[in-house]
Amino acid sequence: MILSKSSYGPPRCGVVVFPLVSMPADAAPVNPEREVALFPISSVRILGGPFEKAAEANRGYLLALEPDRLLAPFLREAGLKPKAPSYENWENTGLDGHTAGHYLSALAGMVAAGDDTADGKLRKRLRYMLDEMERCQKANGDGYIGGVPGSRELWKNVKSGRIEANGFGLNGKWVPWYNVHKTFAGLRDAWQVAGMEKARPLLIGMGDWCVDLISGLSDAKMQEMLRAEHGGMNETMADIYAITGDRKYLDAAYRFNHAAVLDPLMKREDKLTGLHANTQIPKVIGLSREAMLTGDDKAATGARFFWETVTKHRSVAFGGNSVGEHFHPLDDFRRLLESREGPETCNTYNMLRLTEDLFEMEPRAEYADYYERALYNHILASIHPEHPGYVYFTPIRPLHYRVYSEPDHCFWCCVGSGMENPGKYGEFIYAKAKDGIHVNLFIPSELKVSGGIRLRQETKFPSRNGARSRWISPSPQPSRCVSVILHGFLRMASRSP
Ligand SMILES: [Zn+2]
To answer: Is-above-0.90 flag for pTM?
Structure first.
């Protein structure tokens, strides 16, 4: 059933209009108080161990990619001359440009995490990508930045309501909203994670393009369009609302809520069997983001229920889910044991992002436990530490092998999410609560707290049990008590230096 806008909109939402206007004078960033808040990646440094080694491998992979080849589809669609030919594989067979968005996010994460080269090569690349995308946005003239083949005609048709959608296609194109969602997310990360100011107006320009594009579509047309995989469009529009405080973006986020999938979840019904798994997870991240920003209880219930059913009833021991990219029957894991196409990396990447949101709203130990299990066993293992490359599937059938990507030839979805993972390794280790600091993961690292005070964690986990944390201060401080909360349930008092 497709719900009407009035019953499906954000709480306290009245009449919805979508004018293309400049920012309201009273708009301000929206940052509701949360139970706990993860520290920015730039506050955490990983100090040795397998995560640092994997980040080094990732740096090599990112540097092996050529920005001008990733940017070629964007220039082509903007009517500009590409400086190099497009890459092949998924990059010139319909999903043109999807990797560039991931590349922005990956560069932003690595730069913020302190994993850049000494001479700042990754930061320079990030700046160059943004400069070129700015050129494309100016040439397009309507805020759009994208590499979807035949963009102009496609989006013109969509805007006018000419829509034909199926699971992986919209008007004959390969998941165009999924594709542009990567650009949205990359621009957001370039600004929010790496602090690149240039990305902010580019992102808001994209947001305005999107708001205008869907403004004339009825709710029924929107839901018809959402049958095609569309990434986390609800998430990124909610993020633009959080950045700007302009409610038109929040309304747009809610219009991207796919009722056929999200309504049952909000009623705590699991109707996921047979669905393409990674199409659904980003929709639920969007739901959790809406809950976080608005206090929408139904959205929070749906996001929590999805997390529970996927992690407790649809996942294997290492935290992955899906077979052949789809959710299998709840009571039958046999195909997972037999198939070459075991759990997909993108799914776990997205499940960790959902877990972060849920943990910030309610710091339950089970969220941290799942995160630890999936990060160590699936995500860390999805990149080869010595011959940089990422895996698509992690088959669990006995004596099977893994297939790793190569920089010049492989542009799968899991290459995109795979290159983002290392820049996020430090994201969940620590969280700030009203009464102390949560230590969620045993990873050798250092947290910059404030005033030059740092919390250093020394551990060889998982090869050896145990971890030691100590405070480091640049100067003698008055003694005061600080709580360190381990996985949300073990608490010990420590003294600042
Ligand atoms: Zn994937």
So the answer is: yes
